[in-house]
Design brief:
This protein has 362 residues and is of the alpha+beta class. It has ten helices and 23 strands. It folds into two domains: 237 residues, Rossmann fold (3-Layer(aba) Sandwich); 114 residues, OB fold (Dihydrolipoamide Acetyltransferase, E2P), CATH 2.40.50.140. α6 links the parallel β7 and β8. It starts with a strand and ends with a strand. The relative contact order is 0.12. Bound molecules: adenosine-5'-triphosphate (ATP).
């Protein structure tokens, strides 16, 4: 397994890129740790496949370098980099048995037969394929075939990294859930460097130690699932992570608070200190539905709101509030009382985020 380093990496499919929008991958310098599970998360067209293809060696970046354990591999082929890849659709040999399919990448590298057998059985066990080992692959369901594909990626212990490109696309929702957990367990057991591309936040957050969120070619945040939830560095992270995402409201600054349609909302001291010297820019206030506090008008720091709807989600409730012309979402537990006439909210300073031109200020 390897440490992966991006050194001033960037890629444009244009012959003469001049504007930031010309780049499918905008300037990136970062180091990814050996043995960790990473997810590349973002909507369609944000540059996930471009970055993954640069890591795997299918694409040479137009700018910068990729290093594996300090060694420049920017122009090396996937074989030379020694990586395993699992794609959206099964890549297996239909005429071979499941055992032969799993053994193939090892036999191809002349691994001794006893080691092949041990490793194949280990991976088959982890993926619940033991009962199918003697079956021909063509007889199996698409789910099982994709499991074999994943097994072929996982079977080699000598690879620098294993790359997964939306590997659960063809899997039915229930099996998807099981496989996601299995991959996580396999990672914990083998400590392989894994990179997993997806546009599904649940997949990314359950699989990865660290999630890289991409937006319009830029990596807007690399963090643990908790960091992305508690401290989104970019409004897109706030919006894309969480269900529903962060509440965002345009605001201006005044003294030690933000003003939303003339309503003063106190800010943490860090945000005010950081925003103090800033001139110009588009400011927004953000708070997650989980961190807003529902109270009654008249209590300290309470801002009157109207409750316009409540959805019961089984284990919690999601209320829709109106504050001036702004609509806010707030998550409430089952027991919490919702005032009918004098509802109000409080914005706890720790969870109230100030953004300038989409980037977190403090
Ligand atoms: N071979 C190519 N030639 C020109 N432009 C490309 C090429 N491949 C991708 N792009 C463009 O680069 C941008 C990033 O695409 P990329 O495929 O990396 O995104 P993605 O996040 O993987 O999307 P998806 O989830 O749809 O695969 C998009 O605007 C896309 O149109």
């Amino acid at each position: 397994m390897a440490t992966i380093q991006f050194d001033n990496l960037g890629h444009s499919y244009h012959p003469h890129p001049s504007r930031p929008e010309d780049y499918a991958l905008r300037r990136l310098s970062q180091e990814w740790e050996d043995g960790k599970a990473y997810a590349l998360l973002g909507p369609s067209g944000c540059g996930k496949s471009t970055l993954l293809n640069i890591i795997s060696g299918l694409l040479v970046p137009s700018e910068g370098r990729v290093l594996f354990d300090g060694l420049d591999v920017t122009r090396c082929t996937p074989e030379e980099r020694n990586i395993a890849q699992v794609f959206q659709f099964p890549v297996i040999y239909d005429t071979m048995t499941v055992y032969e399919n799993l053994a193939f990448p090892l036999r191809n590298r002349k691994v001794p037969a006893a080691d092949v057998d041990r490793r194949v059985r280990q991976v088959a066990e982890a993926l619940d394929l033991t009962a199918d080992l003697k079956k021909r692959a063509q007889r199996l369901t698409p789910d099982a075939k994709q499991k074999i594909s994943m097994g072929r990626g996982l079977v080699r212990s000598d690879v620098a990294a294993i790359l997964f490109d939306e590997p659960l696309t063809v899997i039915d929702p229930h099996t998807k859930w099981i496989l996601r957990r299995k991959l996580r367990q396999i990672h914990e057991e083998y400590r392989l460097t894994m990179i997993y591309v997806t546009h599904d936040q649940v997949e990314a957050l359950t699989f990865a130690d660290k999630v890289a969120v991409m937006y319009e070619g830029a990596m807007v945040q690399l963090g643990t699932p908790q960091e992305l939830f508690e401290n989104p560095l970019h409004t897109f992270v706030g919006y894309f992570i969480g269900s529903p995402g962060i509440n965002l409201m345009p605001c201006t600054l005044g003294g030690d608070h933000a003003l939303v349609e003339g309503i003063a909302i106190p800010l943490g001291t860090g945000a005010m200190a950081a925003a103090g010297g800033m001139v110009g820019g588009r400011f927004e206030l953000g708070i997650r539905p989980e961190f807003l506090e529902l109270t009654r008008s008249g209590s300290a720091g309470a801002i009157p709101v109207q409750v316009t709807g409540v959805d019961d989600l089984g284990t919690s409730r999601l209320a829709t509030l109106r504050m001036g012309s702004q609509t806010l979402k707030i998550r409430l537990n089952e027991e919490q009382e919702i005032p009918a006439l004098d509802a109000a909210v409080r914005f706890p300073g720790r969870w109230t985020k100030l953004y300038r031109d989409s980037h977190l200020v403090n």
